[in-house]
């Protein structure tokens, strides 16, 4: 039954007359402009549960076949991970053991820890989430720490698998306890879309403590992530179709040929002219369906060729494509210049403004997504296993576990748009006290302790070899005056000897 429109009484001409009530907010109106636009209220997980398998398939297909989608993924991963977000442990012995294990941590035996970071970030972009499974190993396996990490695709965690068994609640493949904590992940033993294993596949409950689940949560209560290209998938496919149609139109426009109409009673022994490419003759069984450049096409006397003349956006095509790619870049979370490589009309100020905004987003993702959800959990599990297996001897570990896990995660340094301007600005801020040295070091991929240790080592080596550089502020001012004085003194001593 249709609801009757709500009426309210309005004073008109000294009389109260009924009028249709309007929504207090235009965005909540139900008139023609907003009819059918997002009228169904949903929770954070219902739409994901129904749509995630299709979103996975379309996102995979777009990245496989669309150059812009592939470029968006590559730029996302290279900026988020780069050469790897690396931990700096407080204990040199822990650092040395980690560096050794980082090269042998992959259960597949292919990547190191930082390659797995890149793979996980790519999975999170393409599928909306990354899954890592902790694999414990035997001491006889010869690993520095008997633990490895296995990355699996999110398809192993079925979003349509929800059930209730007594006090066990399973939602979208994840099992929860009575107070809403994750108890287990029900994972397919093999990838559900690998044909060779579908007949022997089964779900296996894996304790949540042994699974690392990384996804970007945008609503409270959200359990699974969605591909980063979700909001622009339609645009990507339409761009592909538009480019194909434009290419086909241009190909047709470049065709050059001739059409000859002849009477039906022609001599069948006549082979036609000796020039051009003979494509079709009257009476052929096959109808004329394809034009060949430079071809001469023969028609029956009662046949004609007519061409459609669809509207053409002509010179507006480039601007249309640019506006669409701007939307794609915004949806993918990168800049238009990164997506397309188009630097036309870009100057230092404009590119710097775009880069700063992009880097602010990347830094947030590094801290809140990659480090907090992925790296931190793996490092904590690794250190627990290292201590319990005897690979590390830390007698006070369990009493001071939080202190040992106070790790600085150092992201790769940024490449500046104009290094001279950026470094000069940093120097002025540090000298004025507006920025600490630790922040300037962190922006370049260093912790302050690492940077100071490297500088101390370099100075010690220079002193041992009797070297003085203009870059040594202990002995040389900005103009290099002290360096010149030392050189003059050395020359004088040589003359005296």
In a few lines, what is going on in this structure?
With 497 residues, the protein is of the alpha+beta class. It has helices at 46-65, 67-80, 92-102, 113-127, 233-253, 317-332, 336-340, 348-388, 401-404, 419-432, 437-443, 448-464, 481-496; strands at residues 7-12, 15-20, 86-88, 129-136, 147-152, 163-165, 168-171, 174-176, 182-188, 203-207, 211-215, 258-261, 277-280, 295-299, 408-410.
Note down, in words, how this protein is organized:
With 497 residues, the chain is an alpha+beta fold. It has 13 helices and 15 strands. It has a five-stranded antiparallel sheet, with no helix packed on it. A hairpin with a 2-residue loop joins strand 7 (168-171) and strand 8 (174-176).
Count of DSSP-assigned helices: 13
Distance between the termini: 112 Å
Strand content: 5-15%
Overall SS class: alpha+beta
């Amino acid at each position: 039954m249709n609801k009757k429109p709500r009426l309210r009484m309005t004073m008109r001409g000294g009389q109260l007359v009924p009028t249709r009530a309007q929504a207090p907010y235009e965005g909540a109106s139900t008139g023609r402009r907003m009819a059918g636009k997002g009228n169904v209220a949903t929770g954070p997980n219902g739409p994901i549960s129904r749509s995630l398998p299709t979103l996975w398939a379309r996102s995979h297909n777009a990245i496989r076949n669309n150059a812009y989608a592939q470029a968006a993924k590559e730029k996302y991963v290279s900026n988020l991970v780069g050469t790897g977000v690396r931990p700096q442990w407080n204990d040199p012995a822990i650092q040395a053991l980690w560096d050794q294990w980082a090269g042998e941590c992959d259960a597949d035996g292919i990547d190191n820890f930082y390659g797995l970071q890149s793979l996980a970030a790519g999975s999170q972009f393409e599928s909306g989430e990354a899954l890592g499974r902790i694999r414990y190993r035997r001491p006889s396996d010869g690993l520095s720490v008997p633990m490895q990490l296995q990355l699996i695709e999110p398809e192993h965690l079925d979003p349509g698998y929800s059930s209730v068994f007594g006090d066990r609640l399973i939602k979208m493949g994840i099992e929860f306890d009575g107070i809403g904590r994750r108890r287990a992940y029900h994972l397919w033993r093999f990838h559900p879309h690998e044909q060779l294993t579908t007949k022997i596949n089964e779900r296996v409950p894996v304790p949540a403590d042994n699974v690392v689940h990384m996804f970007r949560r945008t609503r409270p209560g959200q359990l699974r992530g969605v591909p980063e290209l979700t909001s622009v998938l339609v645009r990507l496919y339409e761009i592909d179709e538009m480019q194909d149609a434009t290419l086909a139109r241009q190909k047709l426009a470049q065709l050059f040929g001739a059409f000859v109409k002849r009477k039906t009673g022609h001599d069948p022994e006549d082979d036609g002219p000796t020039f051009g490419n003979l494509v079709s003759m009257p009476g052929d069984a096959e109808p004329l369906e394809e034009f060949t450049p430079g071809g001469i096409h023969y028609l029956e006397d009662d046949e004609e060729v007519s061409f459609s003349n669809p509207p053409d956006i002509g010179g507006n095509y480039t601007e249309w494509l640019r506006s669409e790619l701007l939307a794609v870049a915004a949806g993918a979370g990168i800049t238009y210049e990164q997506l397309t490589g188009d630097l036309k009309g870009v100057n230092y100020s404009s590119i710097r403004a775009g880069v700063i905004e992009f880097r602010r987003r990347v830094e947030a993702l590094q801290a809140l997504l990659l480090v907090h959800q992925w790296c931190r959990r793996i490092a904590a599990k690794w250190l627990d296993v290292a201590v319990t297996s005897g690979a590390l001897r830390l007698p006070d570990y369990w009493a001071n576990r939080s202190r040992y896990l106070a790790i600085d995660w150092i992201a790769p340094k940024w490449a500046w748009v104009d290094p001279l301007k950026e470094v000069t600005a940093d120097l002025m801020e540090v000298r004025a006290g507006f920025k600490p040295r630790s922040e300037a070091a962190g922006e370049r991929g260093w912790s302050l302790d690492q940077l100071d240790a490297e500088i101390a080592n370099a100075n010690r080596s220079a002193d041992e070899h009797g070297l003085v550089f203009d870059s040594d502020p202990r002995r040389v001012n900005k103009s290099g005056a002290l360096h010149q004085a030392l050189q003059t003194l050395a020359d004088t001593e040589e003359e005296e000897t």
